[in-house]
Fold:
Amino acid sequence: MYDFNYHKPQTVKDALSLFKEADDGIYLAGGHTLIPAMKVRLRAPTDVIDLSGVDGLIGIREESGALVIGALTTHDTVATSEVVARAIPALNSLAASIGDAQVRNRGTIGGSVANNDPAADYPAGVLALGATIKTDRREISASEFFTAMFETALEEDELIQSISFPIVESAAYIKFPNPASRYATVGVFISRHGGQVSVAITGAAATVFRCPEMEQALSDNFAEVALDSIQLNADDMNSDMHASAEYRAHLCVVMAKRAVASMS
Ligand SMILES: Cc1cc2nc3c(=O)[nH]c(=O)nc-3n(C[C@H](O)[C@H](O)[C@H](O)COP(=O)(O)OP(=O)(O)OC[C@H]3O[C@@H](n4cnc5c(N)ncnc54)[C@H](O)[C@@H]3O)c2cc1C
Structure:
């Protein structure tokens, strides 16, 4: 580690001011990505602004047909929330599938979404459910939020305050986890509402993406068999020591079928 200034503001306004005053500021949520990145000097901010004391960033509530989750809410809180279980139980199981107990107790939904790791689980739920990311200055739709690997539509000092998920008729998330980290080798989130089906896939490519072929097939016939003829192009898929691009393309269909089966 190296020297940096540590701040613990209590309001969003103070967090934003601290960021503006810093030479190279960064927000800290649970630190599960940021601290390891600082240890190996992938990140070297002059000022770390810890959001854990900021009022109003933690909590889960149902509001006007949506489930609203505060940015600093941990994965464990989402996994075990009865409010989530009543509204969108697929988000309970998504959060429960993240990492291990230590990761779930520190990692936050806002940190996960802001980081946009290509293998993170939340981006699939955020995109398939058509969620809205509420920041200190605006509302960003999921379809515009995830721009590239580890990149989002957030401005440098923009702070996520909450994420609002429309409550749908049914949804499911199934992933093929990396056996060590539990990150998604491939994860598929499917939501169904008013005859519309949304399918979002994480882990497979540089960033989370919707799959129009699967959406069309499942809108016509919501059954595993509807996906039988779908073959995703491996050219755009990630390939690494854990899984080849071809294997990931195959897993997308297998995970999607399992998600459909769990919703039938
Ligand atoms: C061993 C291990 C296993 C893991 N397994 C999984 C897994 O299976 N699935 C999965 O999805 N994830 C997994 N993760 C990631 C983990 O779940 C965290 O969600 C992720 O690391 C983000 O951590 P954090 O919330 O502590 O954010 P931090 O590390 O504190 O911050 C991450 C980034 O987000 C920014 N940020 C944080 N909060 C905000 C905000 N409110 N507004 C704007 N920017 C913000 C920070 O500035 C930083 O750039 C794993 C992590 C570890 C260490």
Summary: Residues 60-263 form a domain with the Uridine Diphospho-n-acetylenolpyruvylglucosamine Reductase; domain 3 fold (CATH 3.30.465.10). The chain has a mean pLDDT of 97.
